[in-house]
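User: I'm preparing a small set of examples for a lab meeting where we compare how different chains pack in three dimensions. I only have the primary sequence for this one, and I'd like the structure in token form so I can line it up with the others. Please keep the answer compact; I'll paste it straight into my notes.
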Amino acid sequence: MSEHSRPYVIHSDDECARLELQARLANIEMHLRYLPVLPDNRVLDVGCGSGSMSRLLARSFPRAEVVGVDLREQYLDFARSLANAENIQNLIFRSADVFALPFADESFDVVWTKYLLQWLKEPKRALKELKRVTRPGGAVVSCDFAGFAIEHYPVTPEFDRQVRHVMTSLVDCDIGRKVAPLMISLGFRNVHVEIEADRIFTVIGRIDGERRWNWEKQFQAARPHLVQIIGSEEGADQFVEAFLANCDNPATCSMTTLHFSQGFVG
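Assistant: Understood. Below is the structure token output for the 266-residue chain.
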């Protein structure tokens, strides 16, 4: 982990399987409409995780060259195995830190990232590096949430205070609102944002089994950090129990928006 990053508190041996589930729940095929990829472009997926978006890009643009990068070799091994199983020929995976990408200036036509910037202490520094490796006329597209896990109704004031304290201690829950202004400050041009409901974390009424499992796996992995934030194992367990009970309540809604921020270079 880079010194410029927050801990990736949800890492576990099951993380790649969880990421694949998230990709399916998110219907990532719909994300392609936000990516200005031409048939023979070179595309970079930063923080590729299990490689779901990298594989989708490579399948959707078979003449393109797609590169997926991540810090964890465990994730990259998983991503390579699925790409090999699908016989995808125009995709490679490499280990890389978003703050020091191992590519020359102006190497890619389109750079994509999703759910990455929330884990960074210095997202502007990362965006600057994404801009560096993007060719003039190319685009950086960052997909980030806002209101992540903190917008629920109805809830008690006590639960509202605790969930906001806990979740914002783990991750930047509102990073999606910050990316476009950061792009403008870095000199990107034609910056714009498309906003939609996040299909994973927006739940109207009682949560379904797959989305509940998704939360359970994240909380299991993050438990040591929850204990540290709340101050006790009992308190951490009570928080998770209350959070999941809120998700199970058929009268409660949870809202998270997804911001697709796009900026062009040159």
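A couple of notes for your slides: Residues 209-230 form the longest helix (22 residues). The chain has eight helices and ten strands.

User: Perfect, thanks.
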